[in-house]
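Retro notes, item 3 of 5
We never archived the inputs for the pyridoxal-5'-phosphate complex last cycle. Fixing that now. Sequence and ligand:
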Amino acid sequence: MKKKYAVETGLVHCGQDKASQGGFVNPPLYRGSTVLYESVAAMEEINSDPLKLKAPAYGRFGNPNSRAFESALTELEGGFGTVLTNSGLSAVTTTIMSLVKTGDHILISDSCYYPTRNFCNFLSPLGIETEYYDPEIGSGIESKIRVNTRLVFMESPGSISFEVQDVPAIASVCKKKGITTIIDNTWATPLFFKPLLLGVDISIHAATKYITGHADSFLGAIICNEANYPTVRAGAIKLGQCAGAEDVHRSLRGLRTLSVRLRAHEQQALVLAEWLSTRPEVQEVLHPALPGSRGHDIWKRDFTGASGLFAIILKPHYKKDSVDAMINSLKIFGLGHSWGGFESLVLPGHPETFRLKGSWQGKGALIRIHVGLENLEDLKADLDLGFVCLNRP
Ligand SMILES: *Cc1c(COP(=O)(O)O)cnc(C)c1O
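Structure as it came back at the time:
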């Protein structure tokens, strides 16, 4: 597809190759490990450069389903190439593992998804030092950079605490110093934020979330610029990364309707966030698209929309028993990990247990909210009853 089309049009048509699909709109599902070659010469030719992906070589290296999904994401975010992995977390770990070696220092935003942090703990016995930085550091990242700093990892907004990072400022400092920048772009999806166009080298998605959109798959995607694609692709091959064909198929289907789903999540979440900010039980609403909220100005400058995931911090006098009673009382909002599916979810968050010492200012309980596609008044009524439980003596 030519670049002149708007992103909504791109979402519907990107990565399509109807000619190779007998005219069918969607690629058939390719289940398979072995790929048969015509001759030894053909086998040698195809395998001479596994990074070039001349033709299917072996199921683990991808198939027409993954090629279609990869090219769709590459096109949407303006990358050079995309690498798929079996989960969002493995997209994070594969990217970092592909780039680092013993003796390196890496900088990770203190707002990162906890499992990303948990993975970094695994790096220190390998002689790779992780340092966490304030997500709002902006160009101040320069003061953290050492001679052996290999990469800077961002997540914006942080998926529990919702700080918005000054991505262009960080990318520009790192570019000058030759340091690779990576962002976990799951919250915004390719629809609302395009980090590679702002100078970031690698954009990661847990396609498990909004892209698949139906809570029925695990998939990670790593969209790279030209300089990093060969390294990350080779790393994924060495690590044995293999995205399941059925998950890829479902995720590509989800991508086609992303713009309508995400706009609905966005609108409903904004109404609920505004309503929650008027509730006497709520200390603070952490939602970057809410005027006056933390990070709003940067969000407005860099993003074209907001997804349906945000958090509230309750007034500090509510104790754990009351907060648990509130969450347990909800009938529509489910209690569970993940987000980006059609359904509304809540999750208690505990940034104070893993953030840098003294950096988390929130005093009350944090509840993360994913606003699904249910009726808005039903959702509000559900939370309203939850507040009754919260206030019960
Ligand atoms: C869920 C999530 C991941 C991990 O995705 P999985 O598919 O569950 O492994 C990574 N980053 C963020 C921000 C997430 O919310």
